[in-house]
Specification:
Oligomer: single chain
Radius of gyration: 20 Å
Number of domains: 1
Order of helices and strands: HHEEEEHEEH
Largest sheet: 6 strands, antiparallel
Number of strands: 6
Distance between the termini: 74 Å
Length: 149
Amino acid sequence: MIWLIVLLILAVIAGNLMWLMPSKRERQQMAFRQAAFTKKMNVSECKDLEKLPDACDPEVHWMEYVLPTERSLNIHVPIVLQHKTNHVWLLPDALNHQAIAGLLEQLPSGVVQITIRQMSVVALWDERGDKNTVDQLHAVLTSLRDTYL
């Protein structure tokens, strides 16, 4: 009888501990963010939901993965590249479409917007993918940055 009470108490404690542990999705997000930090990228939650492309679900936690530049990029106003629902990227007319389009095809599927600013390149991403997705994202952002240096 005492063993039954002890097992019941241990089950209650274990249940509470399991409740506190992060889910598989949260552990994956932490791994993505840690991998981004090792590549000298900054990660922050997208606070301005009005700037989301139309196809984006505002209920999803969109994260901005920012690759800072060491020197100013050769642009005067931010360039925004948006991914539309029909899997087409909306590019400004002034861009070299062939060079940029090839890079955009290599992006992870959850990336819906790229913003090229004077001191950074930013990807708006829903953090879905496998363990190599951050490497893939970093490679594309680095190539975009190098295009405008």
